[in-house]
Structure formats: C-alpha cells, structure tokens
Amino acid sequence: ELSDDVVFHAKLNNNDFLIAIKEIAKRLR
C-alpha cells in the first residue's frame, strides 16, 4: 500500500504534467 505522501506527490506530479501539456497546446494554436 502506498503512503499518503507518495500518493500526494504522484498526484502533484501528474497535475504538473497536465499543466505543461496545456501550456504547450496554447503555444501550438
């Protein structure tokens, strides 16, 4: 079982990844 800290960091990293994709998508428009 993952600790809450690991889960938190995984969610945080995933969120940063999604934000980065959105920023790239804006530039490609």
Rg over CA atoms, rounded to whole Å, is: 13 Å
**Spatial separation of the terminal alpha carbons:** 42 Å
Number of helices: 1
Structural class: mainly alpha
Which whole number gives the mean pLDDT? 88
Please outline the major beta sheet.
none
How many distinct folded domains?
1
Number of strands: 0
The percent of residues in helical segments reads: over 70%
Report low-confidence residues grouped into runs of 5 or more: none
Series of secondary-structure elements, N-terminal to C-terminal: H
Shape: rod-shaped
Name the beta content range. under 5%
Explain the overall architecture.
The protein has one helix at 4-28. The chain is an all-alpha fold. The protein has one domain. The chain is rod-shaped and about 40 Å long. The model has no long low-confidence stretch (mean pLDDT 88).
